[in-house]
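anyone else get weird line breaks when pasting these?? whatever heres mine. first is seq + tokens for prot A
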Amino acid sequence: MNKPILTTALAAMALACAVSAHANSSDLGMSLNGLCVAGSCPATAADSAPSEQLSFAHSLQLADGDVYQAALEIDRTLSPIEGHRSISLAYLGRVVDGALVNEVSQADTFDIAIFRAWQTPTGQFTSEMTGKFSAGLGLSSSVGIQLSDYASHAVVADYGVFDAPGGFSKTLSYHVPVSAGLALTQTDNGVRFGAGSAVGSSILIGAPVPELGTIPLMGMGLGAMFLARRKRKFVI
């Protein structure tokens, strides 16, 4: 099982949540296997408004030769509260003798952490996580999601592990301790592409339109995922 320092793929994967109406996103960030690649890790109480738009993309070759593409896009132009976040993961193929070939993957795992700073008087949240596994994924492909209070590292919402094939949806309510009107959260996403995943196979995590009384802080935009302004390539 290979675990790169940086991570993600041509699949499309996005993480989102619908959060209770009295929470305002102050800051955010994303890390891939422990390395902060966008925003602030951890998120902080920004004195000014966070960036309205942020895009990040890179291709990644693992030690086993498997190649993935990762992309992050954040868009908060709709309003100071609403936001849009998408994380895409896709398997592109394997490098053999220096050339990218159309071969199935080996077993690869990824740790993706999303950090948020919430301005909230109560620390009460309700978040829904949904997702879908594409065709062509290898056996044992899965997504595991846990949300923690960053200050104590205590898990406050355990969504569990979702296995391919098909899709999933789960809503949880939870409390995050508040200090000086701020709640800091860390959402850990453990993503596994099972051995034998086909080129182009993908995993999608997102959120539907929230129910009345909630604020959509993040959503999916598959068409925009690969239009990132910053592109990088890493070989691990």
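and prot B, same format (seq, then tokens)
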Amino acid sequence: KIVDKFITEIDSQLHEKKASVLITPAARTWIAEKGFEPKYGGRSIHRFIQANVKDAVADELLFGSLKNGGTVTVDVEDDSLRLRFDAPRRSKKSKKPTRRPRSEKAPV
């Protein structure tokens, strides 16, 4: 539940930037196991998410693929946290300029 709370917090902040975060069940469990320290409780998970998720997302928002919004997917691969940044898809608009009808010459 603590992991979900912090991820939801990040997601609401990203919403303002037209971005969102998705976390897989495996990543949720992995963060809870790796980030939890009984001595510090939820604070250690918060610090862990800050260092491993939020900082990387901030860099992508400012300089990377999330400048114009998109989705962050948090997953686990080879016992490591993996973030995938997907920029929004562009619409399939034609790049050709729109032709305007020729205006008739005004009588002199």
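btw re prot B: The beta strands are 19-23, 70-77, 80-86. The chain has one domain: 2-86.
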